Predict the 3D structure of the following.
Amino acid sequence: MEILSTSNDLQKLNSVLDSFIVQKTIPSLRSILEEPITHHLRNTQEIPLINLDLIISNLEEMNIMSAVYIKCVGDIHMGVLLYLPEEESKTLAAKLLGKPISSELAGIATSSISEIGNILTASLINAISIDMGYKICSSVPGYAVEFFRTLLEAVVSDFGNEFDTLVVSNVELHGVNSGIGIHILLIQDPSEVKKLVI
Amino acid sequence: MNNVIEIKMGGLEIIDDETKELKTFVGSCVAICLFDLVSKVAGMAHIMLPKKSDGTKFTGKNDIGKYADEALSYMVNDMIQKGADPKRIKAKMAGGATIFAHESETSIFNVGSRNIAFLKQILKENNIPLVSEDTGENFGRWVRFNLHSGKMTVTSNLKKFEKTI
């Protein structure tokens, strides 16, 4: 299994993505949730497809997640998967819509979660475009409620990369007052890394 | 001894020991099993995509099950080498779900249905009968194939069901 990125490249990519998240993504979420946001870019690693289980934690394996997937194409090819436990997503939807979500997420509530995905992804690709001049388009958001294993499998399959490995950056955003935690996976081909670490 | 062989994403395994089982997990990917129950030879592939977009052969060493066209060709050849009769080879498959729903009708995330359609086409071209399937829908599936019985067991943790096909 050939790993194409050096640890130096991955470290640099981690820093570059972190700066874009700080510049644009966090202010966007802070504005939407009207509360301070903390963030943690856990790591950026190149993972063999056959070892994707390594990024599935026990917690994620046991909880049903509410998720949004957006595919970015153009000068940069990136998959963005946002997810949070289904129960927490009801809290998020309730906060966005200004009314409690009593039963299953549906209709306007799922749209509100998709919209969060849309806004956070747009903020990130805007930051990349402004800073590096790349032209990037994002797809309509796809919404799902499933276990993380299924979400990851679907995203990796859709991403359709030609390599044995994927570069995955793992981001966590937390609303300080509400406690809402949004996880974001940024997925790229190893061949894309150099575009962002010039 | 562990008798269950777990197949990772894009992986493929062939067995000729009927005490063993093949197992994988699929969402929009497809688990396809080819088997000859007389010779007791079977294979399972975790298909991610119909075929490589640029038309070249795969470059990976561990993802031989990744592309439908290459995986099926490899499986049939390897099964014949292990004693399977091509006239007796049959197929079962599961997966190919559309996990992400879209408000737009022009969904680009339809890899599951593309995988299913392409696999059916290749099976037909190779005269391999598809005897049963549990495909489509919008949930992930654990899939097990038992070579002794020829049964495929499909389980969904989300929908809380188990069925044998």
